[in-house]
Amino acid sequence: DTQMTQSPSSLSASVGDRVTITCRASRSIRTYLNWYQQKPGKAPKLLISAASTLQSGVPSRFSGSGSGTDFTLTISSLQPEDFATYYCQQSYITPITFGQGTRLEIK
Amino acid sequence: QVQLVQSGAEVKKPGASVRVSCKASGYTFNTYDINWVRQATGQGLEWMGWMNPNNGNTGYAEKFQGRVTMTRNTSINTAYMELNSLRSEDTAVYFCARVSRMMNWFDPWGQGTLLTVSS
């Protein structure tokens, strides 16, 4: 299976901060890397697909980059509604696998 | 708009079976795969498998092989996930998700169905 390792597992930050979350795959997944945001009691929401494509309606402060094995999700200026858990997902090969999640908390 | 609506919460005893439904609307049901993902309380996301609504083909995560069955009823645009021989560790929220035909991202997701397995 393709292991997805996210870091950090949790992060405390303030409104207005720039935040970067990284995701590393155990093998090359080209750009088959997606980022999801999940708030408590809700389903995950797709933010970025194919490593860097921002989904319609997602604020431009979110961005993604990377290819192969190393990927990043950056939030340029945190807003109160961004405090949530973020997951990366590889969709290159089954079994589909997710990172363990990064919990973004208010400092 | 594209939407997946799942069936309601379930409480089952160990050893029982459960079937969760996922009704699609806003698109042509048989043109996108449906995947199932589960999430235990406070835990991460665990992929269970996929189903092609057009031909009924399926693929399951090794962990669930022999215990899970994914089916569909195209006349009512609904996908199903049945899990057998339930144990307490199966207590989780179960999500269905539509899979992109391009690079297999999941969008949208159903709202989730809480399954509680308890004696």
Major β-sheet of chain B, in short? 7 strands, mixed
Helix content of chain B: under 10%
**Helix count of chain A, per DSSP?**
0
Helices and strands of chain B, in order, run as: EEEEEEEEEEE
How widely separated are the two ends of chain A? 36 Å
Q: Write down the overall geometry of chain B.
A: globular
Structure, briefly:
The complex is a heterodimer of chains A (107) and B (119). With 107 residues, chain A is mainly β.
Describe the structure.
The complex is a heterodimer of chains A (107) and B (119). The model of chain A has no long low-confidence stretch (mean pLDDT 97). Chain A is 0% helix and 50% strand. Chain A is mainly beta and 107 residues long. In chain A, strands 2, 4, 5, 6, 9, 10 and 11 form a 7-stranded mixed sheet that branches. Chain A has a 4-stranded antiparallel sheet with strand order 1-3-8-7, with no helix packed on it. Chain A is globular and about 35 Å long. In chain B, the strands form 2 sheets. In chain B, strands 2, 4, 5, 6, 9, 10 and 11 form a 7-stranded mixed sheet that branches. Chain B has a 4-stranded antiparallel sheet with strand order 1-3-8-7, with no helix packed on it. In chain B, strand 9 and strand 10 form a beta hairpin. Chain B is built from no helices and 11 strands. With 119 residues, chain B is mainly β. Classes of the chains: A mainly beta (107), B mainly beta (119). At the A-B interface, strand 5 and strand 10 of A face strand 5 and strand 10 of B.
Write the layout of secondary structure elements.
The complex is a heterodimer of chains A (107) and B (119).
Chain A: E1 4-7, E2 10-13, E3 19-25, E4 33-38, E5 45-49, E6 53-54, E7 62-67, E8 70-75, E9 85-90, E10 97-98, E11 102-106
Parallel strand pairs in A: 2-11
Antiparallel strand pairs in A: 1-3, 3-8, 4-5, 4-9, 5-6, 7-8, 9-10, 9-11
Chain B: E1 3-6, E2 10-12, E3 18-25, E4 34-39, E5 46-51, E6 58-60, E7 68-73, E8 78-83, E9 92-99, E10 106-109, E11 113-117
Parallel strand pairs in B: 2-11
Antiparallel strand pairs in B: 1-3, 3-8, 4-5, 4-9, 5-6, 7-8, 9-10, 9-11
